[in-house]
Design brief:
Length: 174
């Protein structure tokens, strides 16, 4: 979704109506922060307290920017002219602190009602928070790397856990 719209490209070449295709990328922001927060920081633990709760917002900012860059390309304009709609972003498992920080066009959040109710009471809710925030996101990711927290390792861990969960829950049809 972020780097290329291969599925939309194949659909266009096959003559399928692009307007009927809905695409959404899901990003588990709550799980991302939980995994990063559970990791030890660089030796001596310096700066660990500043790392807590920063990973998800940093990644979200970078993902949103990558999506916007993709939507600005010539090839996306071709797809748009053929009826394609921009893919959405779904932030999943957000905590109350994420709710106000992950607001932007063509994004949504999926969480239990209690999370949104808590956020409404405790968080200053305002409009667009991701647009043009990619530099802050990159800076936060660099700070995490400096603490010894490798986001590629975090992603592999979360991916392996999700694949494990799917394997356990998969039941072949009789």
């Amino acid at each position: 979704m972020v780097t290329r719209s291969r599925g939309l490209e194949r659909a266009l070449l096959a003559g399928l109506p692009l307007g009927e295709i809905v695409a959404t990328a899901s990003v588990p922001v709550g799980l991302l922060d939980a995994e990063v927060n559970a990791r030890p920081a660089a030796p001596y633990g310096t700066g660990q307290e500043t790392a807590h709760g920063t990973a998800a917002l940093a990644v979200a900012r970078r993902i949103y920017r990558a999506r916007e860059e993709r939507l600005g390309t010539y090839w996306w304009r071709v797809l748009r002219a053929a009826g394609a709609t921009p893919p959405g972003l779904l932030w999943t498992a957000p905590g109350p602190g994420h709710v106000g920080a992950l607001v932007e066009w063509n994004t949504a959040q999926a969480a239990p009602p209690e999370v949104f109710e808590t956020a409404a009471r405790q968080v200053e809710l305002r409009g667009d928070t991701l647009l043009n925030a990619h530099a802050d996101g990159q800076g936060a990711l660099a700070a995490l790397e400096a603490l010894g927290i490798r986001m590629a390792d975090v992603a592999r861990t979360l991916e392996a856990a999700e694949l494990d969960r799917l394997r356990r829950e998969w039941r072949p049809r009789p």
